[in-house]
Amino acid sequence: MRIKERIIEGILMLCAAVSVLTTIGILWVLISESSSFFSEVSVFDFLTDTQWTPLFADKHFGIMPLVSGTLLTSFIAVLFALPIGLTIAIYINEYAPKSFRKSIKPILEILAAIPTVVYGYFALMVITPFLQNFFPTMAGFNALSPGIVMGIMIIPMISSLSEDALYAVPKSLREASYGMGATRLQTSFKVLVPAASSGIIVSVILAVSRAVGETMIVAIAAGQQPRLTLNPFVPVETITTYIVQVSLGDVVQGSLEYQTIFAAGVALFVLTFLLNNISYFIKKKFQEKYE
Amino acid sequence: MNEHFSINRVKDNAFKFFGIFCTLFGLIMLGVFLFSVLKEGLPRLNWQFFTSFPSRKPEEAGILICLLGTIWVMVLTSLIAIPLGVASGIYLEEYGRKNKFASFIEINITNLAGVPSIIYGLLALEIFVRIFGLGKSLLSGSLTLSLLILPIIIVATREAMKAVPKTIREASYALGATKWQTIWFQTLPAAAGGIITGVILAISRAIGETAPLIVIGAMLYITTVPVSPMDDFSVLPIQIFNWLSRPQKGFIVNATAAIIVLLAITFILNGIAIYLRNRWQKKVKW
Fold first, then answer.
1. How far away is chain B from the Cα of A142, in angstroms, using its nearest Cα?
2. Mean per-residue pLDDT, B213-241
3. Residue B232 in 3-state DSSP?
4. Cβ contacts (< 8 Å) between A4 and chain B: which residues?
5. What is the Cα–Cα distance from B95 to B87, expressed in whole angstroms?
6. B114/A115 Cβ within 8 A
7. Which of A57, A106, A286, B272 is a Cys-bridge partner for A198, taking CB atoms 3.0 to 4.6 Å apart?
8. How far apart are CA B154 and CA B133, in angstroms?
9. B20 touches chain A (CB under 8 A)
């Protein structure tokens, strides 16, 4: 009996170890493939060159245009999602009846469950033509439309994480504010939001991280032209789109072009890893504050 | 003083309506979106569309191969990810409470959950496709998606196991059951509802995933029905992406029709998950 118990525990532990192997695998693949890339292209050029043209005759390997495209679309997404998501969180927390809260959650969850390729269609075929009514000079592929659609996609994430943060604010603070005669709006913005600010910041950082790693929406609707710009009306290319673009073509394995997708992958991994850990750090500090 | 009071009241009420609007905004977008998709794609959904192979002519093309691919991926991914994920969840929740290895795995899983899906594609391209030599097969794709959804299943399992009250475990131990007997006959069945809900949501996520499969080279244009896990494959989202990138209007209509099919599958799975969760929450009162 005891031996059987030990064997079962061992098997379960092996299963749990798969996730460690996955992490090791990711790190190993990214490092080994990109190290041969960086033996041919200097890290300095990679970070400072303002052009990314590995697929052309005149090759440049500056990651900045891809990073700027990625950050531009992500920034638009958060700019769009934060006001709406935060308002939803405040509304559900302070204004809405309890029954409403129960029925609205599944609806927001549906938004989060829609496959991203479908959101990409939405950006390309619905939002872009709609926006072109207002901005006639806007290109068919641009940063604005996928940015907005990514915003719609991350609204549930921001609203539910912010709501948790607002909910965690001690009741005494809320009651003190109401006791002073403040309205719900004043209580929300002058007491609850500042008190929950670290939780809200965490939700925003995680949302940025999600948007940075998002692939299909930008691959479908943002275009494939790496350029260093803040103009939301012209085509841009994100890190993820570049990886998709190369994967669709016939690039020879082991070639420098092939290695560029791993170098781009490193940039993407580092970006999201930093964002996730900053949010984790803030979350830890925040928990200490209230306990 | 009084005036001040009423202005604040008005602002408060104005914000209330803004709040209602924002909350319904998602619903409105969903409505606009479903309407535009159904209007464009519904007329295209006929028997021919479901039973045809890919084609250069949009009106002759169909989703047979990618629909079968999606079903294959769904089955294989479930077979791989569910046992692994549930076992990991059980280990972390029941065995690894206080040891260092378990807390190391936990940090790992938190980090993995934040890794963009396309990175899993790069991992799989190198490990499964090249080193294991599995090629661009269904098995490669399913292994990739399994790794991707593993954190979701692990977290769902742990939450469900955590919700089972201590008293049930203690009663079982008091009757002389071993740890594993307690888990297998008591805790796991009691947590099944929550685990199944999490698993369905994870599978639904896997079916909609596109990027990692593009990276491992899932074929955009294949003309044979996949009959074994080692066959080349395509899935619905990849077919949609492919059609969307064609200039002809006919292919866009095809993409829209395929989106309806993909959304139907996603919504059905999510509906089942939400239904099970509600039923489970209602039934179980400890």
1. 15
2. 85
3. strand
4. 180
5. 11
6. no
7. A286
8. 28
9. yes
Contact B205, B265 (CB under 8 A): no
Q: d(Cα A272, Cα B36) in Å, to the nearest integer? A: 34
CA A233, CA A145: separation in Å to the nearest integer?
Answer: 9
A3 touches chain B (CB under 8 A): no
Q: Are A268 and B118 within 8 A, CB to CB?
A: yes
Binary contact (A272, B116; C-beta < 8 A) = yes
Tell me how far CA of residue A25 lies from CA of A242, A257, A274, B73, B204, in angstroms. Answer: 22, 22, 19, 22, 25
Determine the residue of chain B that is closest to A14 in CA distance.
Answer: B88
The verdict on a CB contact (< 8 Å) between B118 and A213 is yes
The nearest CA of chain A is from the CA of B75 a distance in Å of 19
Question: Does the CB of B260 have a partner CB in chain A at under 8 Å?
Answer: no
Q: Which of B186, B151, B179, B137 is nearest to B165 (CA)?
A: B186
C-alpha B87/C-alpha A235 separation (Å) is 46
Provide φ and ψ at B31, rounded to 5°. Answer: -65, -50
**Helices A239-248 and A256-290, interaxial angle, to 10°?**
150
Q: Is A76's Cβ below 8 Å from some Cβ in B?
A: no
At residue A272, the pLDDT reads 93
Element housing A39 (H / E) = helix A2-40
Cβ-based neighbour number of residue B76 at 10 Å: 18
Residue in B88, B122, B147 to test binding to A, most A beta-carbons within 10 Å: B122
Question: Using CA atoms, how far apart are residues B26 and A155, in angstroms rounded to an integer?
Answer: 8
- Three-state DSSP class for residue B137: strand
Can you name the residues that pair with B232 across neighbouring β-strands? B137
Cα separation, B173 vs B187, in Å, equals 12
pLDDT in tens, chain A (291 residues): 788 888 998 999 899 899 999 999 999 999 998 888 888 888 888 888 888 888 777 888 888 999 999 999 999 999 999 999 999 999 988 888 888 877 777 777 788 889 999 999 999 999 999 999 998 888 889 999 999 999 999 999 999 889 888 988 888 988 999 999 888 888 999 999 998 988 899 999 999 999 999 999 999 998 888 888 888 888 999 999 999 998 888 777 778 888 899 999 999 999 999 999 898 888 887 765 554
Task: Note whether A152 contacts B: Cβ–Cβ < 8 A.
Answer: yes
- Report d(CA A95, CA B15) in Å as an integer: 10
